């Protein structure tokens, strides 16, 4: 096993990441039910998602990106100020801030399910999501800057939306073309990382 890995990554198994064009990425995910909270299956899925995200060098990962139809995502990333954020949330609801008070920031954004390209995209620089943790306890997560972008991006996934859907037609076409060119290299790097940490 690799050194310095988070316990979730140590425990988890790497799963295949779904890619743009697969149907599961296009539908609204099913909520995590009361019967699923606190179960070993849900805990294992979260560990697997952390391991998969780590190997893919991601900021966050939604359950439908590992082919599971559940309203759940994980994150492990540094924000603009170098603060590391690690966590998971089930059944997240994004607080919609009034348009008048919302500050949009345009920055580069990519997606593990669109391996390779990054495109400039405007998102709110502050986000709050409310949901539950794996044991069913209520959770409120607040993010600014890049962490806010991550929370919005992952919540989009659970509604069947990709960041590509927020781009203009030309940028979307360019991103898909770049993905065709870059995909094999990205997947090779993920496989090399998995091998290096014994996954």
Short descriptors:
Peptide Deformylase; about 200 residues; 4 helices; 7 strands; five-stranded antiparallel β-sheet; alpha+beta; two-stranded antiparallel sheet; globular
Account of the 3D structure:
The protein is an alpha+beta fold and 199 residues long. It has a single domain, classed as Peptide deformylase (Peptide Deformylase, Alpha-Beta Complex), CATH 3.90.45.10. A five-stranded antiparallel sheet has the order 1-2-3-6-7. A two-stranded antiparallel sheet has the order 4-5. Strand 6 and strand 7 form a beta hairpin. The termini are close together. The relative contact order is 0.18. The mean pLDDT is 95.
The ordered H/E elements are: HHEEEEEEEHH
Full CATH superfamily name: Peptide deformylase
Largest β sheet strand count, sense and barrel closure: 5 strands, antiparallel
State the end-to-end distance: 8 Å
- What percentage of amino acids are in beta strands? 25-35%
Q: Count up the domains.
A: 1
The parts where pLDDT drops under 50 for at least 5 residues are none
Number of helices, counting only DSSP H or I runs of 4 residues or more: 4
The portion of residues assigned to helices is: 25-40%
**How many E strands?**
7
């Amino acid at each position: 096993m690799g050194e310095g890995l988070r316990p979730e990554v140590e425990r988890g198994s790497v799963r295949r990441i779904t890619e743009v064009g697969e149907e599961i990425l296009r539908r609204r995910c099913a909520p995590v039910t009361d019967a699923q909270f606190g179960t070993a299956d849900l805990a294992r899925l979260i560990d697997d998602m952390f391991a998969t995200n780590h190997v893919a060098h991601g900021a966050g990962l939604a359950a439908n990106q590992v082919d599971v139809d559940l309203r759940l995502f994980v994150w492990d990333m540094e924000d603009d100020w170098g603060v590391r954020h690690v966590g998971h949330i089930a059944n997240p609801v994004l607080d919609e801030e009034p348009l008048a008070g919302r500050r949009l920031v345009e920055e580069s954004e990519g997606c593990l399910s669109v391996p390779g390209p990054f495109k400039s995209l405007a998102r709110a620089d502050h986000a709050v999501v409310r949901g539950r943790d794996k044991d069913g306890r209520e959770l409120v997560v607040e993010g600014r800057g890049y962490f806010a972008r991550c929370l919005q991006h992952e919540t989009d996934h659970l509604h069947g939306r990709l960041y590509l859907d927020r781009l203009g037609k030309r940028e979307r076409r360019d991103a898909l073309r770049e993905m065709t060119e870059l995909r094999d290299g990205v997947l090779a790097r993920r496989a090399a990382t998995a091998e290096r940490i014994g996954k």
